Amino acid sequence: MNKAPKEQFFLQPVVNGSSGDLVTDLSVAIYEHRLLPGTKLGEDELSDIYNVSRTVVRAALQALSHLQLVELRRNRGAFVSQPTVREAREIFEARALLEPRTARSAAERMTDAALARLEAHIEAEHEAIHAGEQGKAVRLSGQFHIEISHIADQATIAEFIERLVARSSLIVAIYWRRQSALCDKHAHHALVEAFRRKDGAEAEALMKSHLLDILSALDLRETAKPQTSLKSILGKSPD
């Protein structure tokens, strides 16, 4: 059995200290679909939940807006970003352009250690699905794709892919219509087998098909209804 991958996030916080901790916590809540797109992030409520000043909260929300996870609306406050149908299509079109070639490059550079990391990601994702933690499974699935971009050793492209995958998590939260919007376990296993053989052409073809399948699993008409109570979502109370 592979050791579970070290917990990580799509994009690293850009601030340190209390604001950085808040960025990390809210990012995970967004990635795991506990904070749904469109949810209002009130400064006073977050200050109360985390027992920090509004200055700290404001800095965290600014950082999240730079990561395109939060939208700051003048005179209305902060909201979890809510990608449009048009953006959803554009995001997956961009991923379809970048990730298949990146998968080919990853296959050509694959090592035993890198392969073990990918297998550990799949195992952790399956555990989350079996535990009914679908939001966590979506996040882990995204990290699988990001790990492939790192193995490909293409830093600039990997940064683009990280941002696209982060936006994809929001898109799935809004538009998924069936559980197969989660990355299909067979698709990930097939990719790993292509990587094991260092078959770049097969990895490229599998990734292209895989991304098209994810897009087909989305209903680009429906929108998720955000919850209203941050305390119930974040599971915290003031000290």
Give an overview in words.
The protein has 239 residues and is mainly alpha-helical. It folds into two domains: 66 residues, Orthogonal Bundle (Arc Repressor Mutant, subunit A), CATH 1.10.10.10; 132 residues, Up-down Bundle (Four Helix Bundle (Hemerythrin (Met), subunit A)), CATH 1.20.120.530. The chain has ten helices and three strands. α2 crosses α3, α4 crosses α6 and α4 runs antiparallel to α9. It is elongated.
Report a brief summary of the structure.
The protein has 239 residues and is mainly alpha-helical. Helices cover 64% and strands 4% of the residues.
The CATH topology of the largest domain, please? Four Helix Bundle (Hemerythrin (Met), subunit A)
Radius of gyration: 18 Å
CATH class category of the largest domain? Mainly Alpha
Spatial gap, N to C terminus? 40 Å
Tally of discrete structural domains: 2
* String of helices and strands: HEHHEEHHHHHHH
Q: Strands of the biggest beta sheet: in what spatial order?
A: 1-3-2
Mean pLDDT: 85
Q: Tell me the major beta sheet.
A: 3 strands, antiparallel
Strand content bin: under 5%
